[in-house]
């Protein structure tokens, strides 16, 4: 089944990790970039569409600026990214010219995808580039991304991009072979897992420990990206990008890496976006009756079922719905700001009319803007 799926994939997002294309001391690894471009060019020529998400700007910048280590301070990371990004793209440009493929640079922040219009614009631009036969190369817009609007790491960015372009497959290329039964650094007998049908809490936990020094990710961000892509209905392949032709061969049906199966999803793209792209700006604690109405009876959320409002948010913002014991089970777009909700929570429609003078919306979250997330 794994082989059948991989050989049939048409639209592929390939995330290339920092450690593959740059080192803090030596700068950009042009041999690697050239080899990867050649391999991706060959894959592109077999009638598959490729979107690249490449890290490496910060590490390339560190090298060019002769900084000693990966900086912890955000402004220094941003300065290094600004210096490194143009060098990174110049290297890709030169490498892909050899394969006669055109490339395009796209820099994104989380804010670009959190606004539905901008999300759709990004989708149109990317699909237009693919139709034109161009290979888009995406990175986080590190120079402007402050904590509130950043993805934080490119594994997460790539998981979101897979949804933006409605990919069949997300490939995460790094310096690890895939997911092992145990950390192979400490357990030489650990074996590679070729196929993961479900990402269990145990898998997430065991991945938590491993980290790499010269990038923001680690095994945990890769597993989380696979989980996120899976919620969008996209499969993820973890593969070692240091092995020449590994991706090409896996797509031809050979063994290698770990493939994560996605969840079956009946959600529309807009609902997936509400639930898994937007970050909640606040929380609503609901009573048992409201939890039941939402989860069992497909109802909208009314003010009467809200027990507590946490955080500060505006009309239209995403908020999470929680049970009384703090379990988040749904996410939606609120019709009321946190300030107004504080005045009307727990109240019936007739009382709300008296408090607010008028009733603009009966529902706090309309069913069309609400998604059950399960956990
Ligand atoms: N956007 C960062 C860069 O280009 C990489 C972040 C990451 O390592 O995930 O350097």
CATH superfamily of the largest domain: Acetylglutamate kinase-like
Cα-atom radius of gyration: 23 Å
Task: Provide the CATH topology of the largest domain.
Answer: Carbamate kinase
- Extract low-pLDDT stretches: none
What ligand molecules are bound, each kind once? glutamic acid
**CATH class call of the largest domain:** Alpha Beta
Number of domains: 2
What percentage of amino acids are in beta strands?
15-25%
Structural class: alpha/beta
What percentage of residues falls in helices of 4 or more residues? 25-40%
Q: Compute the number of strand runs.
A: 15
CATH architecture heading of the largest domain: 3-Layer(aba) Sandwich
Strand order within the widest sheet? 5-6-4-1-7-9-10-8
The count of helical stretches stands at: 15
**Element-level helix/strand string:** HEHEEHEHHEHHEHEEHHEHEHEHEEEHHE
Distance between the termini: 29 Å
> Quick one: biggest sheet?
8 strands, mixed
Q: What is the overall pLDDT average?
A: 92
Shape: globular
Notes on the protein architecture:
- By secondary structure, the chain is α/β, with parallel strands linked by helices.
- It folds into two domains: 2-270, Acetylglutamate kinase-like (Carbamate kinase); 280-372, PUA domain (Archaeosine Trna-guanine Transglycosylase, Chain: A, domain 4, Roll).
- The chain is 39% helix and 18% strand.
- The protein is built from 15 helices and 15 strands.
- The strands form three sheets. The chain has an eight-stranded mixed sheet with strand order 5-6-4-1-7-9-10-8, with helices on both faces.
- Helix 4 (57-64) packs across helix 5, helix 8 packs parallel to helix 10 (219-231) and helix 9 packs antiparallel against helix 10.
- The mean pLDDT is 92.
- Bound molecules: glutamic acid.
